[in-house]
Amino acid sequence: MKNGLIITGGSISRFQLEQLATGQRYDVTIVVDGALKIAIASDLKIDYLVGDFDTIEPAILNEYEKKIKSGECQTELIRLIPEKDMTDTQVAIDLAIDKGVTDLTILGGIGTRVDHSLANIHLLLRTLRNGVNGCMINEWNRIRLVDRNIAISKEDSFGKYISLIPFTTKVTGITLKGMKYPLKDHTLVLGDSLGISNEITSEVASIELEEGILLMIESCD
Fold it and tell me: For 72-88, b where at least 16 C-beta lie within 10 A, e where not — what string?
């Protein structure tokens, strides 16, 4: 197992980043563009710095580049051109996959730009297709894709609410146990909001499905 951490743009806090950094050892840490500022403030060890650097303050980037050149920071800088066919975050995810990461946490990715937020959530499909356990988190949400039966303990849940949204045209054979609103052998289709704002009521809840992919969002709002 190889753990990876990506810090990218969006709604993130220094406190949450420091919690992640101290609570888990990461084999690969990738920082994307403007997230460098909060990574430096949290004294995070950065393995790769990726971006076209259109959102980071030039003075911060220049100072960090000096530290790389002097050997003070053991970071590989990957500079991208602004006009490209993928986002900086996608490049970072592909890099993590290429480095053999099996469990990937993406901090950020969800923010005020709805287009970027939706695109970043869809990038979780890249992790799923490559056999990587991927999740995206910010202060209020943890987002994952589910394509198989899973169990979630109440103790390890991210927040009070858990929502299940079809990520494929339809998801069949959905059975929910240990939740406020259980289901048995149900089918969810795109455009259906039935799975919003459920709650775990037992010590361990389970999600079972036969075919399709669910977008699972745990929220503490």
Answer: ebebebeebeeeeeebb
